[in-house]
Amino acid sequence: xxxxxxxxxxxxxxxxxxxxxxxxxxxxxxxxxxxxxxxxxxxxxxxxxxxxxxxxxxxxxxxxxxxxxxxxxxxxxxxxxxxxxxxxxxxxxxxxxxxxxxxxxxxxxxxxxxxxxxxxxxxxxxxxxxxxxxxxxxxxxxxxxxxxxxxxxxxxxxxxxxxxxxxxxxxxxxxxxxxxxxxxxxxxxxxxxxxxxxxxxxxxxxxxxxxxxxxxxxxxxxxxxxxxxxxxxxxxxxxxxxxxxxxxxxxxxxxxxxxxxxxxxxxxxxxxxxxxxxxxxxxxxxxxxxxxxxxxxxxxxxxxxxxxxxxxxxxxxxxxxxxxxxxxxxxxxxxxxxxxxxxxxxxxxxxxxxxxxxxxxxxxxxxxxxxxxxxxxxxxxxxxxxxxxxxxxxxxxxxxxxxxxxxxxx
Length: 410
Ligand SMILES: Cc1ncc(COP(=O)(O)O)c(C=O)c1O
Fold this sequence. Notes:
By secondary structure, the chain is an alpha/beta fold. The protein has helices at residues 4-7, 18-39, 59-69, 83-97, 114-125, 141-148, 173-178, 197-210, 239-242, 249-252, 267-278, 286-297, 300-323, 353-364, 389-405, and strands at residues 46-47, 108-111, 131-136, 152-157, 179-185, 213-217, 243-248, 261-265, 335-339, 343-344, 366-367, 369-371, 377-381, 408-409. Helices cover 43% and strands 15% of the residues. The strands form four sheets. Strands 2-8-7-6-5-3-4 form a seven-stranded mixed β-sheet, sandwiched between helices. A three-stranded antiparallel β-sheet has the order 9-13-12. A two-stranded parallel sheet has the order 1-11.
């Protein structure tokens, strides 16, 4: 018998870890998907569960990587990054978001993806017993690492009744007293909600009053359509005094696997983040940072993605309405968040979103991602693989036929 299992740190035995439950849910859906593919290899599985762009990175960006990868000057550890990338990030913020008061050398650092940045921030601030406030649902990484450090996570529900914005007014003083970090993510995964200036002003006010550091995850903020403009937390007065924003090249520039993002804002946060980062990784490959510069210099790459996702949503939302779902087209991201039906007219009842998601997968070969807390919703992503508009129309017509055949009851 191996003793290794007995040596694993207690933190991984804590069954109350939300991430463990979330992982379990994703693993269950993943297994069900694999099972369906094995059992029915000839039936087309339509995957609306994927949180990654279906297109590759822009050819010009790829060419920069090809040219730079073999150059001797790019071979070194890049440590906390090359200044040219920080400068390009500052110019990008000014051009796309109108944020022009950023010092690229003291207020920006690159990261090996937004996920990696989020995983390091608790180490900068959280002592045992300290609290990270987040939303439910939420991208889980900052919470996971808060818990690893003996911190506590306090969740603010995003519900239809609060229009998917956290309500700061009912947090008990005992929680506020120990709270150090507030994590928000707009445009939001999974709800698709976008931030407003009024919302960000409330966030800044709340942070000021309670001495809380705001982490605004803007991974999707460039993916907007239907008149919605990319909107930065840092464009609102006072934001830089209370926090930072994280931008990722993953979604906006179809570079998920390239692992490149940046953190920008309050120089004290950037400073301590730099210390943790320097002790955790040695920076992203310079050739990738140089490709990232090319991407940031061409925000029109993102425009093409926005047009595509918007076009797909127009088709999908019409079908969802015809089937009976109560859902609006989002103004940003590639996600729409849909309340689950009660069941089917033939007598099937859905007790929760996971139930419905598995039913859709097994009966219609359509993959979705379920959320049950705080309300039962499924997330549909328009990142299914389709080469052109005709293929998009074909897939969505297929979704229509399969969903109508279920005779869902709402
Ligand atoms: C809200 C949110 N933040 C961060 C990330 C991770 O981004 P990156 O690829 O830059 O690590 C994701 C990825 O799905 C996300 O949904």
